[in-house]
Amino acid sequence: MSSPDIRAGNPLKDILGSGGTAIGTFVRMASPDVVELAGYAGCQFVLIDMEHSPVTWERAGTMVMAAEAAGTVPVIRLSRGSRDLVSRALDIGAHGVMVAQVETAEETAAIVAATRYGSDGTRGTAGTRRSAFGLTMSLAEFVPAANAATFVSVQVETVASVDNVESIAAVEGVDCLFIGLSDLSVDLDLPGQWDHPDVLEQVARVQAACDANGVACGVPVPDAGFAAGFMDRGARFIATGDVGVLGRAMRSFVEEVRRSAG
To answer: Does 6-261 carry CATH code 3.20.20.60?
Structure first.
């Protein structure tokens, strides 16, 4: 199966750009099978996690291909937004990037620039998977298509990030601000208390900045009930996690079997 033609755009950007809600998952397991399973289960995107996982670049490439085979959008989550990491993620075929721990508009603008070719940015040119290695489209066709189709998300997960969120959200080319609720709660000395009023106050400020700039607001969610609560607050990029889903399902299975056994 060939990679989706980048000239057709990016379904994830289309959903969010039209005001819709996208549902997907982080994948921390270094497994193309998990990515493929998520796609067949209906996830509209997968966040291949290269910040908190053992995923290598070679394995990430195969996970991207698995996502494409299963009809979901592969996005790579990076620990920082340096030009070399952003370029590598896109060159191996990712349809977008998410960058952790972004605290200023200047950092955000540099990340966006690293995803763009030519006068729009700083991305280096190479024959990549997304251009079918130059076999099915010319560079003149690929460059504008790639600039238009690449999804960009930055994570707002510290008090400093929230303090600058209005300027971060105003950076042209950002599709989503993703609230790192765990890190934000820790930075507020409220570890894990995602529903604490002080955490929710920060969330509300991020959501307002997103709404004012036409940017999607994203959150990590452990379950459907939590997702519904944040969707009621305006979140439109909803991501669970493979480890949590599998762990809870396995525990539920074991407990149910034990109850049945009496």
So the answer is: yes
